[in-house]
Each structure stands twice: as structure tokens, then as C-alpha cells.
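BUG: 3D viewer hangs when loading the predicted structure for this chain

Environment: internal workstation, default settings.
Expected: structure renders.
Actual: progress bar stalls at 90%.

Input used:
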Amino acid sequence: MRSRPSALRDFTVDRRTWFLSAVSIAIGAGGAALAVLLLRAIGLATNIFFYHRMSLAMVGPAGSNQPHATVFFIPVIGGILVGLIARYGSDKIRGHGIPEAIEAILLRGARVEPRVAVLKPISAAIAIGSGGPFGAEGPIIMTGGAFGSLIAQWLRLSDAERTTLLVAGAAAGMSATFATPIAAILIAVELLLFEWRPRSLIPVAVASVTAGALRIWWLGAGPLFPVDLPRDFHPGMSLLIAVPLGIVVGLAAAGLSRLMYGLEDAFEHFCGRAHIHWMWWPAIGGIGIGIGGYFFPRGLGVGYDNIAELLRGNAPVTLLLGLIIAKSLMWAFSLSSGTSGGVLAPLLMIGAAIGESAAHLAHLPGPTQALWALLGMGAMLSGALGVPLTAMLFSLELTHALPAILPLVLACIASYLVTALIMPRSILTEKLSRRGYHLSREYGVDPLELVTASEVMTEIPAGDEIKVGKSGHLPESYVFSDETCRAVAEEMATSGLMNLLVVDRTTNRLLGSVGAAELLAGRRRAVRRESERSIAFQIGYTKP
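C-alpha cells produced before the viewer hung:
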């Protein structure tokens, strides 16, 4: 008798997971090394552009004391270099990094070209080092993912296994950059894997932990931005402001997304009518960076020092307004030009500035301002990216402010609710939609998993059952009665047969047949459940 144990298991996992986990150790190490190299490359580029020296020290452009006129030209030069790399190297280096990783997973079988793995970090280092107000995390995620994809291609793995190793590399890059191994695993699930299965989750976790451990050795342990809350901190009062603050930040997140894509549309419209090749668009974006940097130098570069100051609760009003207004405009304008840079750090910064500004308006003391900055930071990440679980844990791992967990959860959920209601897509998936691809972000149990073949089959009349097969062997055109309809659908897809015979697993008796029409029973059941809920809301109907 043909055996199908996987159809009766909770998880579709096999011994290949051991192999993938072993490979993920190497990918985690490689992803961590690439993250460190990219951070050092950003430091080198910043030193060259703004300090005119050869150094790997992580410094910000704002402290260079450059003549003001020079600030206008440095970002333009960086934009020209990025445009040339995109034009003559690979146009895949343009963009945030995370949407490109999603596109590689969904549309290209998790295959990334080797030159992207090399050119993406170089272009990001130039863009950020020349003053670009971007985060390094998007390029690092793409670079780590490219490394994982190349290893998988070299090993000639399947599409699903390539995806797992690509995501493992991406998670390793994020874990090494921010010292957030758990959040790196979660963002892989919420944004990249599109599944929650042991076969993929375990290797990704192995890579993230490996990178996190090496990060301690190479860059030091976390937290990256410690927050000191009072010893007698009690979340009672903060719970009252968490939801209103989350709503405000959620509205701001939606506004930032629309601002960026509105500017992107304006870029395409203006440059298209002027017949300006897209290679020159990053240089035009550099003009916006230069103007913003002239009036607000602290808006240049990654700005991790700004985040640290915000989370200490002592940021001046000028910095708060500069981040909310100038940084937002500089980031949205330059990123919409198609240059290379991430969105995570700017979103964290702007969200924290909104939270601390609200605390300033309420005339609250420094420690409370730091708490509100933390809530704003998490809420912005949750709403803009649509990743509430990642936002909560990421904020906690960045700060180690565990006592703030209750108000943080409320703020993140409130922001997530706002953006889920008013935004059809997140700031990341909107780019995919503009390329003609719709991506559903809702995960749930397949309704076909809840129905067995015996429940939907067309039965043979009583007394007509016959015993089939010899020595327990069954032809490929049969399925067992206790198999789920999802397993039946997979059998149809594999065999090409649209009608299968149903057999009892223990007696080998033919019980009936199941076709494509019968498989819709599971879907009908799910639709019926939703419609009954709608009726209950509309007319007060309750089931007896």
C-alpha cells in the first residue's frame, strides 16, 4: 500500500532541514561579515566625501564642518556614481532593498545575480556616504539575501530551498547590523518567507543566531540604543497615551508612504517629459539632499546618533522639527529618485521624533520623553511596514526597555490598525504593486486543510464497494479517504488528473471519487463562515 505520512502530519518537514540548517551556519557567518563590511564601507565613503581622509571610522556627515556650499555638490556626485553603477552594472541595485528581495523570491525563483551581491553594497555605501538620508538595513538585507541565494544556486537546491537560504542571509544581515536576532527572524516571516513552516523557519533562525553571535565578537553586544526607564516605572499612565500616540503615528506612516510615492510619480512624469534618462535621477535626488543638508546638516547620512539622542529623552525642539520636516522631505525625495538606500532607520527616527514631540507638548520630563520616543519608533515601524510583531520585538531588542512592553504593544497595534484600514499596501509592497504584482499579507490555514476527501467525495452506492490493488499497492490515480483536500489538490496538480478515486487506507476498498468541483467544498465552507459573520453584524443574527 502506498504510504503518505506527510498528509497526516502537523508539519511538512524532512531530514533536508538538517542539511539546510548546517548550510545556514555558513550563511549566517557570511551575512554577518557582509554587514560589517557594508558598515565599514559606509564609514569609508563618509570619511572620503566629507572629511577627505581614508578611514573606516563610523562618523556622521554633520560633524565634518564642510563649507556650506560644498554640501550642495557632494550628494549630487554620489547620485551620479550610483546612477552609473545602475546603468552599466545592474539596475537591480536601485531601491530600498527589501522590495527587491521580495521580488526575487516571488518572481525569480529566489535567484539573485552575483553582480548584485557586489554592486548593491557598493552603491549603498556611496549613496549613504555622500549624505543620503537612508538606512543601511535594506541594502544589507538584500546583500545578505544575495549571498544566501548564490550559495543555494551553487548547491543546485530547489526553488523552496533557495528561498529559505536567501531569507536566511537576509535575516543574518539584519541580526548583525542591529543586534536583534529575534526581530530578524520575525521580519523574515512577516515580509519575506510568506509561510511559517519548520523547514524554513529553523534554518533562518540558525543563520540569525550565528550572525548575532559573531556581531558581539566583531561590533560588540547590544543594545544599540539603550533606554533607561525609572526604577519605579509603572506602565499605568503610559497605557492611556499609547493608543492615541499609535493612531497619530499610523497616520504619519500613511502620509510618508503617499509622500514618497507621490514624489516618485512626479519624478517619472517630469523626467519622462524632459527625456532625462533614469541614470541621472539619483543625481537630481542628490540636489534635494544637498538643499536639505544645507539647512539641516543632521538630516544627512544614516543618523544613528539622532536615534540615540531621541531615546535619551533630551532632544532639542530644533532637532525634533528638523527630523519630522526636513528629514522626511529629504528622505522621500531622494529615495523616490531610484537611488540605493533603506527605509528602516529613517522611519525609526521620524517615529521617535513624533513621539518625543508629543511629550514636549505635554511638558513631560526626560525619562518620559524617552518612553514616548520609543513608542513612536515602534509604532512607525509597525504601521509603515505592516509588521507589528517585528516592530514590538525590534524596539525591545534595540533598547532593552522591557518594562515598556505593554504600552509598546498597544502603540504598535494601534498604528497597524490605522494603516491596515487606510492603506491598501505597505510602503514596501506598494513598489511591487506598481510593477504589476499584488501581494496578499494575510496568513491563515488553507480551508482545504480542514476538509478530508471522504467528506466531499461522490460515494459509490452501498454494496458496490470493491477491494482494489494487489499486495497493498495502489495505482497513482488513487487518494486515501483521510487525506485533506489540499493533499488531493496537490496530487491533481502533480498527476494532471482532474478526477481521482478515493480508497480507504486500512481496507483498500474503493469508496468513491473526487474531482475539482468537490474540492471547492472547503472554499465554500470558508465563504459561508464569513458570510454568516457578516449577517450577524448586519442584522444582529446569532446562531442558536
